[in-house]
Specification:
By secondary structure, this protein is mainly alpha-helical. Helices cover 61% and strands 3% of the residues. Pfam families: DUF1631.
């Protein structure tokens, strides 16, 4: 038995105050004061951080256009900060005044939360959609985070306003109302949607993240004033076996297992699906008007298929697909797969009719939208030039499993983190770099095929399988990537070594020819300089570099060696020559030893030089002609390449040639210059065969682009001009690096907006 004198813990929600009373007026003034003070401080903090955030993003911008957007946004915010802040706080004040006057808003009455299906179709633009998704996402997150405190504020404000039901959406200081007020204020800013979305994130971070203290203040003040002082912060919850519908007209209820793991209640997913529903509805209405009364078909009758019927029919179709072998020849199977993708709706209705024992010709509007949306997704896959034809066919077999996921959980279309979406993106990204040449052992193809087969055989209604398969795929790709990275490193090092060698050879030749000038050197001296000593200079450049003392000494030797070959006419000349010879011999011995001359070969060459210098000094009569001396110069070892005819001809300037070539223009050069390491290209050879390669390395020496396949093996290397030429004539094509699902959704929305387009059947 409970003592009657003890305070009850049960809150009587029927208790209410007269909103016209003086006491209520004082309480409302208190609430308004708390809200104004707290929100003003939070908004001020937010605006102080907007400037810094946009400046940091501008400094890290990926290109000049993005940087300009951020700087323009900074200037606009600085210029209009006061009016935006005033508009925001003014709208909050008006909402509180309306509340004080008894004019409470109906749930979902404001533009931030109302379904996009009720908005004019012309307003459902890409920017509007992104803005709505950002706002609804922050509202949902904060309503969930603040659920307990917000529940108490709702109940206490409900008492103040005479017992009128108050919920999260109609609360004048709730996340929905504050977000709507800020969205209204943001209309004062003329900035790009990218900047707007960043400001919304900062609003979430600095304003909505701090309103828990406002709710605590309101609850404490009202409780202290005697408004539901014993209220417990209990939150009404939705039954797990009755998930909220994701869009208008939804009749399908997810099975208990799916509902428990991923209830379809996400605000952002609902917003996105409702916007698509508006586009699909407008599309169907337009198509009906075009067809006219001449084709007036009878209105569909009979009960709509239930969720269980849809999933059951899809499971039967899935088992039929799973029992068929996956075709390996794309030219044969791709047409069949394309036809199956386009006619899945008819197959599904026929299967439901067989299960019911009576013909079925329609499904609910939302289910039809979902079926069409998944159909368009897989049509996009079959048309996506980023994927090889063989991989298009494999991935297209997943249409039924992904339709089942979409019917179970439509958040897949709005959430990039959805496991089914992440798996499809990962499969497409791995497939992008696939080619028969790079996958000779078939490891990647077999892995993708295995994942497809397992989904077809094993997926029922538990989306956990997508997470498990994504992890397996990632492990496989990690092993392959590590192996490929080692091969890439070897290819890059080999290419770098060859380029350094070639650069050093050109430098050596240039230094020798410049110092020789127009002098007519004896063949013996010329032969030593352009063969043995040229290779010593190359080796010195590679080992010590052109700033080293060794390199400077090697150049000094050239000058001394050339000077030693000049005719001697007097005593002073002979004295100067004799002073040079010991240093020449020491340097030459050291240099020849460095380039792998054997001691015997070195002595023989020095013997020839001694004979030459005796002749120069007039100390003896040469026993042989000078030609014999040249003929008897020892050849270089096979491991040392001779520089027999050095030249000073400059290398052609690829970029200059490109600018002069009429076959392509600056756009092709810009495309080549802007390539990033890691981007994939498709190359087409003269015989029409294609190969896919990733940009692995750009030489800092020559500027050449090195491309490798997914195994890390070299496929091609191009100069800037050569790559621009390939872009111009279509033998090179850049593959899109964005995620498959994102590209598909963008293409689908764009297609639905086009008046002449029709939904996938």
């Amino acid at each position: 038995m409970t003592n009657a004198s003890e305070p009850s813990n049960v809150v009587d929600l029927s208790q209410r105050l007269d909103p016209r009373s003086e006491r209520v007026g004082a309480l409302l003034v208190t609430v308004r004061g708390l809200a104004t003070k707290r929100l003003h401080a939070l908004a001020t903090n937010m605006f102080e951080n907007i400037d810094d955030a946009l400046f940091d993003l501008a400094e890290k911008a990926e290109n000049n256009a993005a940087q300009t957007q951020f700087f323009d946004g900074m200037r606009e915010v600085r210029k209009k900060r006061a009016i935006v802040e005033r508009t925001f706080l003014g709208q909050v004040a008006r909402d509180l005044a309306d509340f004080s006057a008894g004019r409470t808003r109906a749930p979902n009455a404001d533009g931030a939360a109302r379904p996009l299906a009720n908005i004019e179709l012309s307003l459902v633009g890409e920017n509007e959609l992104e803005e709505s998704l950002a706002i609804t996402s922050m509202i949902g997150k904060n309503e969930q985070r603040l659920a307990r405190a917000l529940f108490a504020v709702n109940q206490r404000l409900s008492v103040i306003c005479g017992g009128t039901k108050m919920d999260d959406a109609s609360n004048p200081v709730g996340p929905a109302a504050l977000a709507a007020a800020f969205r209204q204020a943001m209309r004062e800013l003329l900035v790009e949607v990218r900047v707007k979305l960043i400001i919304y994130k900062l609003f979430d971070r600095y304003v909505l993240a701090g309103i828990d203290e406002l709710y605590d203040d309101i609850n404490n003040e009202l409780a202290a004033a005697g408004v539901l002082p014993q209220l417990r912060h209990e939150i009404s919850t939705r039954r797990s076996d009755a998930p909220a519908p994701i869009g208008p007209g939804t009749t399908a209820v997810a099975p208990p297992q799916a509902a428990a793991s991923a209830p379809v209640t996400d605000v952002a997913a609902a917003e996105f699906m409702q916007s698509l529903h508006a586009l699909f509805s407008a599309r169907r209405d337009s198509a009906s008007m075009v067809m006219g009364a001449a084709t007036s078909a009878p209105m569909p009758t009979g009960p709509l298929p239930s969720a269980a019927e849809l999933l059951g029919a899809l499971t039967l179709l899935q088992s039929q697909i799973a029992s068929l072998p996956s075709h390996a020849t794309p030219l044969v199977s791709q047409a069949d797969v394309t036809r199956d993708v386009a006619h899945l709706k008819e197959q599904l209705l026929a299967q439901i009719g067989q299960l019911r024992g009576q013909q079925t010709s329609h499904v609910s509007g939302v289910d039809e939208d979902t079926i069409d949306l998944v159909g368009m997704l897989f049509e996009f896959i079959l048309e996506d030039h980023n994927l090889p034809a063989e991989m298009q066919v494999l991935l297209a077999r997943l249409q039924i499993p992904y339709l089942k996921v979409a019917l179970l959980d439509r958040r897949m279309f709005a959430h990039k983190s959805h496991p089914a979406r992440q798996l499809l993106d990962a499969l497409a990204d791995a497939a992008k770099g696939w080619s028969a040449e790079a996958d000779r052992d078939g490891r990647l193809f077999d892995k993708v095929k295995s994942i497809v087969e397992r989904l077809l055989h094993d997926f029922d209604d538990d989306v956990v399988i997508f997470t498990r398969l994504a992890s397996e795929l990632q492990e496989f790709l990690d092993v392959s990537r590590k192996r490929a990275e080692l091969a890439e490193q070897r290819v890059a090092e080999s290419t770098r070594g060859r380029e350094k060698l070639e650069q050093a050879r050109r430098r050596a030749a240039s230094e020798i020819v410049t110092r020789i000038g127009g002098a007519a050197l004896p063949p013996l001296i010329y032969g030593v300089l352009t063969r043995a000593w040229a290779n010593y200079i190359v080796l010195t450049l590679l080992r010590q570099g052109d700033e080293s003392p060794e390199f400077r000494e090697s150049l000094r030797f050239i000058d001394d060696f050339i000077a030693s070959a000049r005719p001697v006419y007097d005593l002073n000349g002979r004295r100067d020559l004799r002073s040079l010879l010991p240093g020449i011999e020491r340097s030459l011995r050291r240099g020849l030893a460095s380039v792998a001359f054997q001691e015997g070969d070195t002595e023989q060459l020095l013997g020839q030089l001694h004979a030459f210098y005796r002749q120069q000094l007039g100390e003896s009569t040469p026993e042989t002609e000078s030609g014999t001396l040249v003929a008897s110069v020892m050849p270089l070892p096979e491991s040392i390449q001779a520089i027999e005819e050095p030249t000073l001809e400059p290398e052609p300037d690829d970029e200059t040639e490109a600018l002069m070539d009429e076959a392509f223009d600056e756009r092709n050069l810009a495309q080549a210059r802007e390539l990033k390491v890691g981007q994939w290209l498709e190359f087409t050879s003269e015989d029409g065969t294609t190969d896919r390669a990733k940009l692995s390395w750009v030489s800092p020496i020559s500027g050449r682009f090195l491309f490798v396949n997914r195994r890390g093996l070299k496929v091609a290397d191009h100069s800037l001009a050569g790559l621009a030429q390939a872009f111009a004539n279509g033998t090179a094509r850049l593959l899109d690096s964005s995620l498959l699902f994102d590209r598909a959704m963008d293409a689908i929305v764009e297609r639905l907006r086009q008046p002449e387009a029709t939904p996938s059947a």
